[in-house]
Amino acid sequence: MIAYSRGWLDCDRHTGGMMDFRKLMLVDDEEGVRRFLGLSFEELGYEVKTAANGREALDLFEEFRPDIVFTDIKMPVMDGIQLLKSIKMQSPDTEVIMITGHGDLDLAIESLKFDASDFITKPINNGVLEVSLERARARFNMKLQLREHTENLEKLVEEKTRRIIELERQNAASQVVEGLSSALSNAAQEVETGSGLFNELPCLVSIHNRYLEIVAHNTLFEERLGNQVGNNSFDIYSDRDSPGNACPVQKTFDTGKGQRSKENFLGKDGEEIPVTVYTAPLPNNDGDIELVLDISVDMTELKRLKDELLTTQYKYQRVFNDAPCYITVQNSDLSIAEANHLFKRDFGQSVGRHCFDSYKHRSEPCSDCLVRKTFADGKTRQRETVVTTLSGEQKNMLVQSAPIYDAAGEIVQAMEMSTDITEIRRLQDHLTSLGIMLGSMSHGVKGMLTSLDGGIYRLESGLIRNDEVRVKDATRVLKSMIGRVKKMVLDILYYAKSRELETEVLDASDFLKETADIAEAKSLAAGVEFVCNVPDGLGELKLDSAAMSAALVNFLENGVDACEGRNVDGGGRLEFFAVRNGDNLIISVADNGMGMDQETREKIFTLFFSSKGKRGTGIGLFISNQTIEQHGGSIEVDSSPDKGSKFIVTLPLKTEG
To answer: With 60 as the cut, is the pLDDT of residue 300 above it?
Structure first.
């Protein structure tokens, strides 16, 4: 694990533009925890500083400036939540991971609202620690990368825009030449003598006669193209090698009008020079065109800047499109101007549509819209929400918004980035519900322990007095309590630890008969008639026998409890039937007990719901439903108050091949 962690740390050190993410501060009031975790972090390649409480950590924070902070929640002087808030006010980019005991889960979950990266529980597992560090690092680098690319792109666009405008102004100024033909005759003389204004111009200036010969050019022209006096006018072009392929000078003589075109000159070293050519006719005293003035602006720098800008835009687009989160650029009316590939994949082609329509399937903006707030005050915003993709999948998202400015510093658009935290929330909800479950069961466990104490006392007194009736009563109580304790423990284990199915191919008839034998004993002990109708030859099932047996026994035992609860006249009755229907096995569990109303029917497969009061955990049917769904099956419930209940389970049979 250590070698792996050092590997990705070393990778960060060599990543251009990224911080090395090696400075870590550990805050805990227990010296042993600071010493143990500090050594672990140093082994992972971090530079570590420690503090005993939040106040001491804040004093150290300004000097040390850590990239990541691990802090306990409950500490003297200043607790972890207060420390988290203070750090985020000073340095929003610092990643903070909360350390908590099992009793502090509510506080740990609360810390996520204040932008904590994650939380881990004591005792700390090395694997969990490594995953948490890697998540914090990924989140830290993603924020830096997006910020760096955004800032660099804005600066580069501004710089290149200024340069392009400057060159275009030079371009535009050259066009004035076309309206100055009377002054150009004098200018031609300056070119011929190699002096005056046109020799100072940052342009390639040349004079051509009607025989399409170059009669003069300025110094810059000679520096770039060599001495061309006496050569043909078309020789200076890279793609015109004869009079038949008319150049701008020839067109000016032919039409009597100035020309403007984009061309390529051939430099004296054989390189191509992109230029914008402006020609103007120079008439003699009789009004006939005697010469043509050619003023060409070198566009090499402009082309280089445009190419560089395109390259920068391409890099930005790659980062934008390949980011592992949803990114949109939105206008002030909340219409989507740009969306990355991941967003388009999960929400369709949304450019031009409103964010609240394509992302949240609403007809009007959200009341707490982050983008609106960012447009209003220019601040970065963050919150959590739930969205539904085109495929119907619901995802928990951490949404952040940030302003996009123009060259004048005005907010013109806003960027919204959404990170999928569904798995994190699922794990947190699982831990939370497990904590709630254990807390709610504590009273039930206490009651069962009391009953066990009472049963043991009655058993001992019966043995001392040689009272057989008292011994039997005590034994019955003890068996009942032990069964309830066993069921509660198994329910907790099944819920707390998800596991893969361990399937095998079994004869359906034999499996169901063995399951019926398990439930029959409880049914007879409770005075409930048990009827089993499981024929031979039902086919084969591919299933996890332990999990499926526990699921079906749950239905059967609930049927016994329902009959006992009603105290049916003439005795309760529990039926267990099975029949083959094509490639499916239909299993029916029916009782004539107290039955259920509609509200109870709708909730019986909900976690922690029980109609048995203190006798039920509220987990059994929830787990049974999960088990049947894992096997590709389904459950139907038919029940009415005082008319009993019927559970119909459908399971796929194993087919040939």
So the answer is: yes
